[in-house]
Amino acid sequence: MRASRFFIHTAKEAPAEAELVSHRLMLRAGFVRKAAAGIYSWLPCGWRVARKIAEIVREEMDAAGCAEIFMPAVQPAELWRESGRWSVYGAELLRFSDRHGREFCMGPTHEEIVSDILRAAVSGHRQLPVNLYQIQTKFRDEIRPRFGVMRSREFIMKDAYSFDICEKGMRESYETMRRAYCRIFDRVGLKYRMVAADSGAIGGDTSHEFVVLADSGEEEILYDKNGNYAANAEHVPCAANDNGGDGNSRPEPREEMKKIQTPGITTIAALHEFLGGKTPPARSIKTMIARGSNGACALLLAGDRSLNIAKAARQPEIGAGAELASAEEARELIGAGFGSLGPVNMQLPVVADYSLQKSADMVCGANEDGYHYVGVNFGRDCPMPRFADLRAAQSGDAVPGGEGKLSSCRGIEVGHIFQLGDKYSKAMNVCAEMPEGGARPVLMGCYGIGVTRIVAAAIEQAHDERGMIFPDAIAPFAAVVIPIAPKKSGEETRAAAEKTYGELRAAGIDVLLDDRELRPGVMFAEADLLGIPHRIVISPRGLQNNEAEYKHRAADSPENIPAKTAAETITKKIRSNLAAGAGGQISRACQTS
RNA sequence: CGGGGUAUAGCGCAGCUUGGUAGCGCGCCUGCUUCGGGAGCAGGAGGUCGUGAGUUCAAAUCUCGCUACCCCGACCA
Questions:
Q1: Which residues, listed in sequence order, are joined to residue A151 by a DSSP beta bridge?
Q2: Across residues A552-572, what is the average pLDDT?
Q3: Contact indicator for A18, A37 with CB cutoff of 8 Å
Q4: Is residue A556 classed as helix, strand or coil in its secondary structure?
Q5: Which residue's CA is nearest to the C1' of nucleotide B39?
Q6: Among A232, A426, A486, A583, whose CB has the most other CB atoms within 10 angstroms?
Q7: Which residues fall within 8 angstroms of residue A81, CB to CB, at 6 or more apart?
């Protein structure tokens, strides 16, 4: 591609609205242009990156035995009513009507449509298994779109759906996808981890997330440095024998329970200070009121720990749809506000986190505004609560089922694979005649990759003050040839640049020739901003010694190489980089559970 | 959805307090010079000041409504 005929519009300044690095750089580099909140046009440079990612995904999905289809972005309400999701999905589903008043939505995902396709086409087990995928625009009406294409409302996603007749088959399909995903992210060239996303109601590996490592990521990952464990922090179980804090130190009560006046004290930190620092937050009882389908319940945690609401939902006292009660509800149920609650004389059922199991002489609210109890002990001053795993795991907790402590890092979710079982096939009657006779719902899996989000994640992961730094496989161009050729005396330089450019093209390298005859500084700045990994500069000065200058985007300084064989040299580098990503050997990032 | 903020040329901003018919930088166009890290000089194009109403002789500026966008919050008692 010749820069003179391409569409490169960069800016020195980014619009004020962008605060995330990737968003700023994408706007400065002219990757995208916003059309509305969370809705973007993809301009040529950005689109090249997105396309390259999509193409890698496509190749690996095809190689894994999936068949590409293309489903409608606009979907009829009737299918969503059939699956039950029309009423469940909420405001994130963008709904509208056509001229006849028929209801539709913009697809946030495609289980309904693909199920409808399957039930029409498949009737017997001999036609399965099948795995269909598409690369499509999705729409989710996010409450608050932000970070550019990282959390946009309209985005491009690869979604695949597998259909099997038995659980073993579903697991095999899942495993095939897991491996394909590892190959995809290896090839894309990013640092990532596959992490457990659900410890499993069904048991086993039912869901994995693929997370690109970046400090600005919204997901927290907890992992074992020895590589035996990695999971989304939200899904890390805390074991019964891991009590955290200083909870192991005082098994026997030493103090009598006393009620003390604590005017205006409603936080653990304020209480700690009020008590003169004597009772650490770990021995303060944090009492929260949660309710779900089964009722309301008081949850107790060590004061230095946080609740994981999903874990609360697993308690029989609470049940599905668990939410924390509002301050008004708490007052109605208990008669005291937040910060003054506690297990002593608590009318609601009580469940305590393991973090309190070995604590004695604790502090808690007195269920009366302005009062706390000190010297509280379970079993003596209030009934011994049932202990359960309620808290959010954090760095320093024990590795589940293993040795040592968890470490923490941040990442961006770019892929997620699930075993769905018969949830949709049952609701939508996707059945197949089984080998043993009789029709049964088929078992599904679904597998997503955020194509456009990967663009932002890649930039988030690798950039410097001058701009983006792309891996070879997804850079807008793998290489750029820059002639430094003054209008009057640059004939020879231009010719040499053309020659190198031609040779690179002939070798199949995706190369940009910057033939715009701009000042060198401008061309360098743009090449750096765009993150083009390999740069060859041809100058009159170099040509006198038969040399070209080569610099990798991430390198500190350039090196001189023979001009004659410059194209060959770069071709070799790029080919070896691409081969390393597609090496067949799945990277270590994928070997954690 | 609650709170806060912003809206002036393609982008970044000033002007608004104290009303008088719009300006700066980047970018764009023309010319000359320059040519290894976002050039210099000279000339030029480009704006219904988000939108609707109101106040006024006069509104970017004051008042009210609307819309869009951004930020914070919407689980830690």
A1: A146
A2: 96
A3: no
A4: coil
A5: A519
A6: A232
A7: A87
Using the CB atom, is residue A130 less than 7 Å from strand B?
A: no
Residue A424 has pLDDT above 50, yes or no: yes
Position with higher pLDDT, A330 vs A579: A579
Mean pLDDT of A305-310: 87
Tens of pLDDT, residue by residue over A345-358, are 998 999 999 988 88
Mean pLDDT of A375-382: 92
**What's the number of CA atoms in the CB half-sphere (13 Å) around residue A136?**
22
Nucleotides of B under 7 A from a protein CB: 1, 10-13, 25-27, 34-39, 68-77
- In terms of phi and psi (left: phi > 0; alpha: psi -120 to 50; beta: otherwise), the region of A271 is alpha
pLDDT averaged over chain A?
89
Predicted confidence band at A273 (pLDDT cuts at 50, 70, 90)?
confident
Domains and CATH numbers, chain A: 57-175+194-237+408-459 (3.30.930.10), 258-388 (3.90.960.10), 477-581 (3.40.50.800)
Instruction: Give the ranges where A13-135 is alpha helix by DSSP (H).
Output: 21-28, 44-63, 77-83, 85-88, 111-121
A308 touches strand B (CB under 7 A): yes
